[in-house]
Amino acid sequence: MIRLIIIFLIIAIIAAIFGFGGIAEGAADIAQIIFWIFVVLLVISLLSRLFRK
User: Fold this and answer.
1) Burial grade of 12 (CB within 10 A; 0-12, 13-18, 19 or more)
2) pTM of the entire structure?
3) Which keywords, in A-to-Z order, does the entry hold (predicted)?
4) How far apart are CA 50 and CA 52, in angstroms?
5) Neighbouring C-beta atoms of residue 27, cutoff 10 Å
6) Which 3 state secondary structure label does DSSP give 10?
7) What DSSP character marks residue 19?
8) pLDDT per residue rounded down to tens, the chain (53 residues)
9) How far apart are CA 6 and CA 26, in angstroms?
10) What angle (nearest 5°) sits at the alpha carbon of residue 40, between those of residues 36 and 44?
């Protein structure tokens, strides 16, 4: 998932440099959504490990 975040971040930066505001905004939004999904999955994983032990 980190790879997807980095890919969409690079797409957003390149699109912003060339002036494609809509594409840059969309890629940045997708990267942000994937990042928050990753954070939620990390917290769930940590909590499950905490309760197993």
Assistant:
1) buried
2) 0.60
3) Cell membrane, Membrane, Transmembrane, Transmembrane helix
4) 6
5) 21
6) helix
7) T
8) 678 778 878 888 887 787 776 777 887 888 888 889 888 988 998 899 888 86
9) 14
10) 170
